[in-house]
Amino acid sequence: MNSIALEFQTYRSSSSCHPLFFHGDAHSTLIKLPDHSIDFCMTSPPYWNKREYENGGIGQEQKFEEYQAQLLLIFAQIKRVLKDTGSFWLNLGDSYQGKALAGVPWRIALALIDEQGWALRNDVIWSKLKGLDNAKDKLRNTHEYIFHFIKKTKDFYYNLDAIRHKPRTTGVKNGAIVSATGVTGIRYKRQIELSTALNSDEKQAALQALEQMLMRIVKGEISDFRMVIRKQQRTTHSDSERLSGRAKELAQKGFYFLQYHPNGSKPSDVWDIIPEDTTHRENHYAVYPEDLCKIPLLATCPEGGIALDPFCGTGTTNLVAMQLGRKSVGIDLSEQYIKTAQRRCEFLI
Length: 349
Prior knowledge:
Blueprint: H1 3-12, E1 20-23, H2 26-30, E2 38-43, H3 64-81, E3 82-92, E4 96-97, E5 100-101, H4 104-116, E6 119-127, E7 143-150, E8 171-173, E9 176-178, H5 186-194, H6 200-218, E10 224-229, H7 245-253, E11 255-260, E12 270-272, H8 291-300, E13 306-309, H9 316-323, E14 327-332, H10 335-346
Helix pairs in contact: 3-4, 5-6, 8-9
């Protein structure tokens, strides 16, 4: 057994969540790790032709095809070491060739799908909210992509409840039940009673269903709801009964409900997160913010699992994994970055 594999096996069997760091090339280090040994990977490789990093490495290639080929070699190793239940989150920014946007993130993502058989579960827009751009002939660039890949489309680990937004509280006001966003049911009752699109039986059924929905709020079974009544609210998604079950329900019953989970709503695929401005910028010019890692780690890395970042830089993924009680492995070509990452994580011991 090679020294890297031995060190990893020792770490995996220990109780410590302090990250394990390896100084070296991502590909040559990954090939020494055992199959199906990692639960989660999140990384942000050097962007193509954007910055010059210490010790060179990936991102300095003259041709995009060379850059893609190098990344795919590494991503193939990530797929090998990742468990079948695991997830791979990839953050990539785009680059320009002259005046033309290269389309780097999606070209890499499609290659992962077409050439390596990854399944793309989500494409996330990281809205950075700000950004400097002095060009006078294009819009300001303030977003990047984060892709969530899985190895298998069944039985992959995903803990949605761990990332739900905490719902606002419900209560009673002036004798009426009030939902988290202020829905009392009074407006819906009036719309039902005055409706010319519902017959008397449908009105009675709608009023009874509305009362039951309000009682479910009181019991904490849901946090909120919306009611769609025939000819009162616009149907969601589609008016076609063939395409939409809700449209069919509206046609048959005269109403339906949209219910909100009692533990809160799930995050969307647009994340408003301000980039890291100052932390460790003296050593690394592409530190992504800690908040960027939290949703992926909480949702797709189980408690007791091991996270991986093969381009760990100053160790943000590893730091957040440690904060959340997960083990992690970080790899980087720069010895200086590894030392900085180790110092960051030591503060949590």
